[in-house]
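Can't attach files on this board, so I'm pasting raw text. These are the components:
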Amino acid sequence: MNDADSLYQDAIKQCARAAHGHGRLENVKGEAKLDNPLCGDRVRMQVALDGGRIAAVAHETKGCLLCRAAASLIGARAAGLDAAAVETLTGELDAMLKGAVAIPAGWPELAMFVPARAYPSRHRCVLLPFRALQAAIGKVGARDTAIPANDHGEAKVVI
Amino acid sequence: MNDADSLYQDAIKQCARAAHGHGRLENVKGEAKLDNPLCGDRVRMQVALDGGRIAAVAHETKGCLLCRAAASLIGARAAGLDAAAVETLTGELDAMLKGAVAIPAGWPELAMFVPARAYPSRHRCVLLPFRALQAAIGKVGARDTAIPANDHGEAKVVI
Amino acid sequence: MSHTAASLRAQFPLLAATPELHYLDSAATAQIHRTVLDAVLHHETTSRANVLRGTYRLAEAADLAYEQARQTAARFLNAGSADEIVFTSGATAALNLVSHAFGATLQPGDRVLISVAEHHSNFVPWQMLRDRCGIELTLIPVSADGRLDLERLADLMGSRCRFIAVTQCSNVTGAWTDVAAIVAAAREAGARVLLDGAQAVQHGPQDVQALGGDFYAFSGHKCFGPGGVGVLWGRAEALTQMPPFLGGGGMIAEVTPEASTWAAPPQRFEAGTPPIAQAVGLAAALEWMMTLDWTVIRAREDALCKRLIEGLARIPSLHLLGPQNGERAPIVSFDIPGLHPHDICQVLDAQSLALRGGHHCAQPLLAAFGVEACTRASIALYNDEADIEALLGGLDCARRELS
Amino acid sequence: MSHTAASLRAQFPLLAATPELHYLDSAATAQIHRTVLDAVLHHETTSRANVLRGTYRLAEAADLAYEQARQTAARFLNAGSADEIVFTSGATAALNLVSHAFGATLQPGDRVLISVAEHHSNFVPWQMLRDRCGIELTLIPVSADGRLDLERLADLMGSRCRFIAVTQCSNVTGAWTDVAAIVAAAREAGARVLLDGAQAVQHGPQDVQALGGDFYAFSGHKCFGPGGVGVLWGRAEALTQMPPFLGGGGMIAEVTPEASTWAAPPQRFEAGTPPIAQAVGLAAALEWMMTLDWTVIRAREDALCKRLIEGLARIPSLHLLGPQNGERAPIVSFDIPGLHPHDICQVLDAQSLALRGGHHCAQPLLAAFGVEACTRASIALYNDEADIEALLGGLDCARRELS
Ligand SMILES: Cc1ncc(COP(=O)(O)O)c(C=O)c1O
Ligand SMILES: Cc1ncc(COP(=O)(O)O)c(C=O)c1O
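---
Top answer:
Structure tokens for the assembled complex are below.
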């Protein structure tokens, strides 16, 4: 099998293992814990913003390779994004997994998840850290309102 | 169709219409109301015993022709029976409906229900008055204990 | 596509195999369409797996088929989203679900309205809720022809009405409920509305958004689909506000010995392995129904119903239970004093007429009509003039034979 | 009759059509036997009608088929009588039924025992009962290899234990519960016992009288039958003492606006139109199972299980969740630190191995093992050596590919 067609290509394994951004922030401004009750994928995502943009990000991620690779990518690359950009990015990634040809603009690394298109049950593994990031940013400044269950990654999962 | 093979043969219609024993007793000793919640068949059966044997019987029956014919037959013929005889009779009638060749001994009139063999859903119409009679006798002398639902005709009916 | 009764009838294997059968009991169970049998067979032999998000391809196929069935049900009902579709084991299960899950949000003294015309499945659960939780249960009465009498609706609702659960169409009289009036009154009072659509769905796709209630329940077996499956539609915000009903696999976010947390709707309400192949079969039935021209079909159903009512009117002393005419579904129940429905149906059966006699799980309604049982003919898209003429002839015969 | 895995496998259309498939997920859903598909098709095309005692011949045929299915289920379980068989929509529905209906007879402070090893479907309903009614819920712990640890059973029961609900066989570890010990302790205390037989039934007919509990629940789809149907067996006197759970058509004696009275069991617990064709299909599966020689089949299942456990033992750091040997069903779950079950199953799928990774709806048990997810292989009568060798090879491959 051509490595580029393979779900478990080296890019994913390396990215997962690198675990960029693993850990916790000192000065956390927004935090969200999401999980996928099917398999125990679990992401705690923390952000600090500066002028509405991500100044620092950290996460603790337990999960499969796809989930860990996605979280690690966020750790490496999410600084500088604002809430709108994260939302756009997550939407484009979702669309890519569902079959859209385009790789989200400015994020060529996400091409490593293209083979996951063929496995719908794995899409949420990839998306979980991005949804956690959205939720964490949403918490910044917001009064501590609970996010409705529908917006949680986990809440949509049939176990 | 040969009348003897027909469910609604004249014997049944006449017996139902005669409504032997229709009414209420003055000196009721045992009474039971049973119904078939499917179709509203409803029998109130009253008995007075003498030395353990039926001295008088009366009933109010709302129901289909089969049910009314059975009740009427009881009204005409049940005097003199004791509890054991009623139980035997009911059991033999049940067996006859389920296919046994024998007509219950001493009750040649029950032959009119032989065509009902072919219609299992109607068996309880025929049996309901007999079960009510059993229940009414059971009430005589018994402390007023409720009969467990299982022993009611109606309780076994799926509507 | 041809919409003659004959061409439709040919698509129902049981009816095709018994040309002599006059099946007039579709209100109890409609016959199953061949595409449903094919869909179930295909699913079970190519995509059978549990839908608990297995990662192997077979499980993904099962998941996909099940979630597509949800989409189809949403389209059939014009629901706002597939997340508003909860698969249940039938209408009864759906109605009990709401009586428990919504019921858990009620306080003693809160009022629930149902009607005298309800099927036991939309009657008994609310009685049980009353007895369990101390709510007030109030009955909307019916007029002489069996329609819900809404004249005193505001009085009946009082100041603490929180919920109104009514049938969209009576399974005894065929009367359609004035849903708009109920929804308007409920909205004003801040009460939610459930429609029991069990009898409506076999007469065409529904539009829950246009109807305007909050919940809608129906069964697969009454709209040409499999048994063992039903649908509860609930408005997203209504579903989200309810706690779960049944507990089990698939409806949780997390289980610990101390406490459990719930998944979002619709999963929150689908505990355990759902009826997967049955949902797929139901979707096939609904897809097929959505290809039909319901103007043509309903016009024929109405014409047959009219012809039947005219024919019945000539039977001396016959009492029609329900509207003589006007907005009614083709469900026709009647009482002939002196002739018991059981006996009537038995004689009709000898002429291959399949009708049901009894209380039709609507004892309070029959009590309001002063009868304990009645005979019911219900007409569906595969019925034709011959069925009606056979029935009228059969009734003549029954009257002769039984008297 | 030949009992080779190949001859059995040939009777399952999905497996026959996909010879390359190594289906090792029967604990989630077993494949459907061809006789079941035939029985369902036959019923739907020759005997479809509602079973609410219609008097026409078609309805009598449906009634008969449904009640014969009840007889068959009674024989499969060696129940005292067919009246002890309640058809439900599945094991989860059966378990919820008991938690509500028996639960309604409990007082605050009464104790219910379940175990840490329960499937969520036998865990969450009792938690919900606790939260609704103030009963005490106490957990039987598990030993290191996942068996129910009954050493302190008497202490756990205390003086007010009224009910013990435990799995007969764990869906994660394959451990069989020491039912005799539990039944003996319960009998002494006057407590009733429910066995969750969901995982047991695919390994052969059961004898509820020999087991000695009061309730037994299982699902059709896990014993080669249709989805959407399950069975609750209840000892006659236990069923008779319980109020109904769901309200609706078919479970009443009489409904009036003031109050309703209930039919006797089993009808009392079958509200609404039951899954008729599914019950008929389930009966076909059970009939077929009763023709098999289970000594032969279980010996093969055990041998395959042993071979698999031996093979897994050679994988460094692999942690087997459950008994190494002895009395166990062929359900084998394991954890390989550093390799996520999802990733493992994904790689295995590429080799046509169908296994499930996750928490298997048993989070409390997995928490007791200190893992959040695991990979599970479950073996049924159609599996053979090739399936096991393929799995062991596939795991080697997964370890290479994922690291
Ligand atoms: C032990 C056990 N109990 C209960 C269940 C629930 O069965 P169902 O999902 O068919 O209702 C299962 C299967 O998922 C199980 O394995
Ligand atoms: C109006 C109405 N509501 C509810 C039901 C219950 O449907 P089911 O028995 O399929 O659950 C029926 C059918 O019996 C019905 O006619």
